[in-house]
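Reviewer 2 asked us to include a model.

Predict the structure of this chain.
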Amino acid sequence: MNASEQNQSTTSLRGAAEGKGKPRFAAIIFDMDGVIVDSEPRHEQAFREIFQEMGLGDRHGMDFTEYYGRSDRALWLDFIARHTPSQSLEELAAWKQGRFLEILERDQPIFEAFPGLLKRLAPHYKLAVASGSMHPVIDRVLAMRQLRLYFSAVVSVADVPRGKPAPDVFLRAAELLGVPANRCCVIEDAAAGVEGALAAGMEVIAITNTLPRARLRQATHVVETYEQIEKLLL
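Predicted model (structure tokens):
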């Protein structure tokens, strides 16, 4: 993004808000993986370790980038269709979740600039998490740096009928916050999440933590840093 593009992106939300005399948004809904915590490489590491232990090595045939922003269940269902393993879906999901939590606890990979952004947004907006992860993973992440204190609502893919790119997790978060969908702004890093948030009738700020700008171009705004998110919203 060049300077003129960044300035145009920065003023569009703030300018609209100031012109109406009230904030454009009442709530900010955060994706977790790739936005709050640098977890996508660690999800992939957990899957790769398990595939190795299953004797597949690099012959698993799974393109991890296709599952960014989606649930583990989506990947496992495709894996089962391809390889017909002896383990059930539930066993595979538990195996991977346990391995991932071990890696997460060891690395504590909260994005360094995120807690400061959260602290500055909290006085101005209701805040929620809408994640494709399960509650035990979400709980473990939000326990880091005492992040849970900032969120009025936390929604997992387990709480809704459909995962991203369906809009269900975002709509449920808005419902729990008591805020209309069109007064919510979503922070995402994955194309599936951007698609789901737009389908929910929300605007989306996509950050290039996980995917390049070109893969996120459907978002309302695409940014590269948390500072740019702050400038859009405050």
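Residues 1-10 have pLDDT under 50 and may be disordered. Residues 118 and 187 are 12 Å apart (CA to CA). We have added this to the supplementary material.
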